[in-house]
Write a structure and sequence with these properties.
- It contains twelve helices and 18 strands.
- The chain is an alpha+beta fold.
- A five-stranded mixed β-sheet has the order 3-2-1-9-10, with helices on both faces.
- Strand 12 and strand 13 form a beta hairpin.
- The chain starts with a helix and ends in an 11-residue tail after the last helix.
């Protein structure tokens, strides 16, 4: 009875605790927060200076006394205490009266997560103030968010390309029939661009700059019109500021390896899929979700390599948190998708 009362008073949350961004969703208001998973800390006092969007601006620009930390790595917690502080900050930002009534939270996690990593997610959310924590796997959440028929005896394939991991899964009857999780996604693409500039132009660029390049002119497949961009950084030989002009072709070459790994994971999942489910996927195609799916031409490349119809969700950045949020509407109906 008390549990129902607290559930009525509290504002239950769905959380996409991502390597790149954290999103929060409530039943009443939908997506109420979408901020970078970054925390800026003053090292002398070990106190939090900024969280989220403000803290991301600190990356690569901090003096020695300040550290800008990304506490999530490859989809899992890399720094427990900083993650706890980040979760608490975000919850307080969206829930008024947080000290009086604690929310229940559903959090999505990668499919390849270990028991230790699961426990870290649950404990960080509990210590941040959640009264109850449930976990759902990211590809399952993406399938729910995209309104795929997960409860039916039909094979649905989901490729969720986040910041830290790419999740490839085949889903049927509210369960994952096969899953492949590779630690190659948006962050790896950013790092590949940074390495390319070092090797080809002897130019050091920051993480924020590499992300802007990826979003502006990055592509996985030749584009109908050439895209150009001026990139500023630090000359590795002289140590002075330097500007170079690059095209989408340069960045496509830089992203060749991350894209190859993602394609290999998709092919491997298709090879391991049972024949009946493979037939369903051949008829219905596969779903691309996550921020990485917005890489220009990726859908065309996947379609060419797999000979499948490729569908990008209408808002791939929020597919996972929307699906996680839908499970709040009827926890009993979606009880089979929770993994704890």
């Amino acid at each position: 009875m008390l549990r129902k009362l607290f559930g009525f008073l509290g504002k239950d949350l769905a959380m996409d605790l991502g390597t790149a961004n954290t999103l929060l969703f409530t039943r009443a208001d939908g997506i109420v927060l979408n901020e970078p998973s970054v925390v800026a800390i003053e090292t002398e006092r070990n106190s939090v200076l900024a969280v989220g969007r403000e803290a991301k601006e600190y990356l690569g620009r901090t003096p020695q006394r300040i550290r800008a930390i990304r506490p999530m790595k490859d989809g899992v917690i890399a720094d427990f205490e900083v993650t706890r502080q980040m979760i608490e900050f975000f919850i307080r930002k969206v829930i008024k009266g947080f000290n009086i009534v604690k929310p229940g939270i559903v959090i999505c996690v990668p499919t390849g997560i270990t028991q230790v990593e699961k426990r870290a997610v649950i404990e960080s959310a509990t210590q941040a103030g959640a009264r109850d924590v449930r976990l759902v796997e990211e590809p399952m959440a993406a399938a729910i968010g995209a309104n795929l028929p997960i409860h039916e005896p039909l094979g649905s394939m989901v490729v969720d390309i986040g910041g830290g991991t790419t999740e490839v899964a085949v889903i049927s009857l509210s369960a994952i029939a096969y899953a492949e999780s590779v630690r190659m996604a948006g962050d790896a693409m950013n790092h590949a661009i940074q390495r390319y500039f070092q090797e080809e132009f002897q130019l050091l660029i920051g993480e924020n700059m590499s992300e802007r390049i990826k979003m502006s002119i990055g592509s996985a497949f030749p584009l109908p019109e050439q895209l150009l961009m001026e990139v500023s950084g630090k000359d590795m030989l002289t140590g002075t500021p330097k500007v170079v002009r690059v095209s989408d072709g340069h960045i496509r070459e830089a992203l060749r390896e991350p894209v190859r790994v993602i394609l290999t994971a998709i092919r491997r999942a298709l090879e391991k899929t049972p024949p009946e489910l493979a037939g369903d996927i051949a008829r219905n195609g596969l779903l691309l979700a996550g921020g990485g799916s917005l890489l220009k031409g990726l859908d065309a490349l996947v379609a060419r390599e797999t000979r499948l119809k490729v569908i990008i969700d209408e808002d791939p950045l929020t597919t996972v948190v929307r699906g996680t949020g839908r499970t709040l509407d009827d926890r009993k109906f979606f009880s089979r998708v929770y993994i704890n």
